[in-house]
Amino acid sequence: MAIPGITIAHAYAGRVRVTLRTVGELSVTAGLILTLFCAYLLWGTGAYTASQQLLLQRELAAGRIEKIELGGALAMLRIPRLGRGYEYAVVEGVDAEHLKKGPGHYPGSALPGKVGNFVVSGHRTTYAAPFNRIDELERGDEIIVEAREARYTYRVTSQDIVEPDEIEVIAPVPGKPDIRPIRPYITLSTCHPEYSAAQRLIVHGVLKQTELRKE
Amino acid sequence: MYAWLWRKLPGDTGTKLLGAVVLAAVAVAILWYVVFPLWEPAVTLDEVTVRR
């Protein structure tokens, strides 16, 4: 004969067990989903960039760049220090949608090779992470920008870590917003430290050589 | 939850296993191609520009 009190205790213990198991399963599932999301951020986003780069580079190779438009290709960027195969098509614009396609040129900053500051921002950890290793650049390293009309070779002059609102670094003369530029500069920016939005890593360079393209 | 799902899957153990793998693959695909792209803009671990 069942004693009512014990049956109730058993039923209660059963409910607790089911609840705990469900909570545990949901927690493990949430953990797996977050892990998968991290994998997506690091590698999944790169697939989009790769496909967009293919389109932009084809556009540049065909020489079809008549005018510069937001989201369109601007020039090829090569950095020999980061590998022989290091090349990205620079896109016009620095909004999220532009930077997903590749390194982006600040609209309004100087064009490649022109007097002023050619400012380019790129992702460091997501979307193919084009600027992941620009911290390895040293004074004198080449940054090559191949625009439609010429191939410009800049040389790295300095590297800096700044706060996100220190816009002086992208002034026409980097760091000196009140001075009129007389030379062509380049500035690369990305996030710092890696996986963080706390600061910005900045690499400055100055134009050393211009080779006009034969038409 | 998973025990309940396993009981609901039809067939013998082999068929159940196949069904479970297919379900998991569908879940991962929906996350990867639909949900994660929607989440991604909210994550600001890669802010690269300087601006005020």
Automatic annotation (TrEMBL), chain B:
Keyword Transmembrane helix attached: yes
Spans traversing the lipid bilayer: 17-39
Keyword Transmembrane helix: yes
Protein name in UniProt: Uncharacterized protein
Keyword tags: Membrane, Transmembrane, Transmembrane helix
